């Protein structure tokens, strides 16, 4: 309850809004090289993590305006959790496969990405009691998420992997689809928490 009270504070919402906005901008910048060589009609499927954090940025802005978008909440929750966990697993997996010792293989940027993506996944869960999405929104986002997976691994437009990890791409694809299903069912199961804590009818000053 205390944590949810903190999450309800305007200063906390603004702080998360700014962090997610800046993180999204950096995320799109991080994808700049891949976006530059991707055909235009595939661009929408490429920047996974920054698209997820951008969606949550919009959700936070709407909360600050005492508004909600069930579809945007569902999209943010599913994709934040999925790509947050996915990135951490890929970074650690790549570090294990690297010819250098694990701690030498991972740079400060890797660790920054690990902690920032864990934060993404955590955000998806922390606001579960105040989400307003229903199964309809979950179904729409589920369709998009699985379509994105199909496009990524059918046309090889998934996020660039560690060179050693490229050899395991079929296993990465299987893991990705399984993680999508886990994320969808997890977020759907969180629906029972909705309404247990009313935050945004009167946001704390």
TrEMBL record:
<feature type="transmembrane region" description="Helical">
    <location>
        <begin position="171"/>
        <end position="190"/>
    </location>
</feature>
<feature type="transmembrane region" description="Helical">
    <location>
        <begin position="12"/>
        <end position="31"/>
    </location>
</feature>
<keyword id="KW-0812">Transmembrane</keyword>
<keyword id="KW-1133">Transmembrane helix</keyword>
<keyword id="KW-0472">Membrane</keyword>
<feature type="transmembrane region" description="Helical">
    <location>
        <begin position="43"/>
        <end position="65"/>
    </location>
</feature>
<feature type="transmembrane region" description="Helical">
    <location>
        <begin position="74"/>
        <end position="96"/>
    </location>
</feature>
<dbReference type="InterPro" id="IPR009845">
    <property type="entry name" value="DUF1405"/>
</dbReference>
<protein>
    <submittedName>
        <fullName>Uncharacterized membrane protein YpjA</fullName>
    </submittedName>
</protein>
<dbReference type="Pfam" id="PF07187">
    <property type="entry name" value="DUF1405"/>
</dbReference>
